[in-house]
User: Fold this.
Amino acid sequence: MERGIIVRVSTDLPKTFVENDCKMEKNGQRANVGGKGARYTEQVDYIRWRRGGRFNSPVPEKLVVYTAFTLGYLPDGRRLASKRTSPQGARRQHRNMPLRVNNNIAAINTQRLISRNVNVLHRGLERLSSGLRVNRASDDAAGLAVSEGLRSEVARLGQNVRNAQQGSDLLQTAEGSLQEVNNMLVRMKELANQSATSTVNDTNRESIAAEFDQLVSAIDRIVEATTYNSSNLLTGFGNQVSSTASTAVTGSATTGVTRISLSAVQDGTFTFSDTAADGDLMLGNGAVTQTLNMGTLLDGNVVASGTSVVANFDRLGVQVTLAGVGVQGAIGDYTDGDLDGTTIVVEGSTGGSFQVGPSNSFFNRLEVGISDLRATGTSLNLGGTSVASLDSARQAISYIDQATATVSVARADLGTAQNRLNFSIAFTEVEIENISASDATIRDADVATEVTSFTRAQILVSASNSMLVQSNVSLVTALSLL
Assistant:
C-alpha cells in the first residue's frame, strides 16, 4: 500500500514536479502517478507521494490539506482498491495572525470565561453552604412556586399534629377525672346496698348517709376542678343536646330514643319528619335536611325486640340511637312515625372543636361534647338521692346505676375521640413525610453533583487566571519590533 495527499497550492507552481518516479501536474489536469509497479489516475488538485525525498522544484510554504487516498496494486500492475481517508492533519489551515496591541482579544475572551466560571463557583458555594438548590426565584421560578406551596402545607399539617396531640391530652385529662368519679359511684352503690338491708338500723344509716353525701359533694368538686388551659371540661364542654328542651329526648318513652351523638354540629333546633309506615325518616334545621331510608334497619315498622339501631344523619353530624322492646336501660321503643314533629335542641358552648386538617372544612375538624357531669346536675341527677332510710336507699340504687351508665358512656365517647385523634396524628405525619420528600426533590441540593460542579469551576478559574496572565504577556513581544 502507498499513501498520498491531495493538496491545493496557494501560489503558482511550475507545471511539472518530479520526485523519484512520481509526477505532479497543475490543478484541473489529469495526473499520472506510478512507482513500484503501481499506477493510478485521478482528477486532483496536486498529488504528492509520502516517500521521503524532496521536490526538484521549490514548493510554496502555504499549503492547505484537504483529503487523502490510499492506492492498492498487484505486481502485474492491476489496481486493487482506492480508499479516501482523513489522515492526521487534514483540514488544517495555516494562516498568519496579525500582531495588535490596542485590543487584546485573547485577554477579553479569557476575562469573559473567568467571569462565567466565577459565577458557577459562587453558585456552588451558595448551594453547598445552604443545602438548597433553589435559593431565589431566578434559580428555578416554577420550582420555587411549587416548593413554597408544599412548605406552607407542611407547616399547616405540623400544626394540625400539635392540635391533635393537645386535644388528646385534653380528653385524657377529662377521662382521668371521670375514672375517679366512677370509683366514687361504685362506693356510693355499695353504701346504698348496705343501707337497703334490714341488718342495719336508722342510726347506722345516718353514718352511711354522711359518707354518701360527702361522696356526692366530692364528685361535684372533681367535676368543677377538672380544667385544661383554664377551660372547665366536665360542666359542659362543646355543643350539647339539651335534655330538657329536646322533645325527642323528653318523650323517649314514646320515641324510643336512648342516645343522641353530635359531630361538628352548629347550635340550633333540628326537627324530625316521620310519616308512619313509609320507611323514611327526615331531620333538618331549616337550612339543611337529610332523609334516611329506615327500611333496612327496621323489622317491619318497628325496631327488632332486644336490639337498637342508629339513624346516622352524617350530613348533619347527628346520630340518633333508637331502641326496640326489651332493651336494657330504655324506657320506650320506636315505631315508624313516632318521631314526627319532635325536636333536637343543640345548645352552643365553648370548646369541643379540634382543628386536625389544613383547611376550613367540617371534615378537618373533630367535635367533642361533654355534658354536665356534676352529681347534682341533670345528667347524673344524684342531688336528691338519700340513703338515710330503707326505702330511699333502695331508690338510690337505681339512680346510681343510671349515673354510672352515664359516666361510662361519657368515658367511652372520650376514648373513641382519643383514638380518632391518634389515627389523625398518624395519618398527618405520613402526609408530612411524603410532602416533605416532594419538596426536597424540588428545593434541596444534590451534594455530589454540586461538589463535582464546584471542583470543576475551581480548576477552570485557576486555569483561566493563568491564561489571562499569558495573554497579556504575549503582547509584550510587540516591543521587540520598536
Remarks:
- Residues 1-74, 80-94 have pLDDT under 50 and may be disordered.
- Residues 2-85 form one domain.
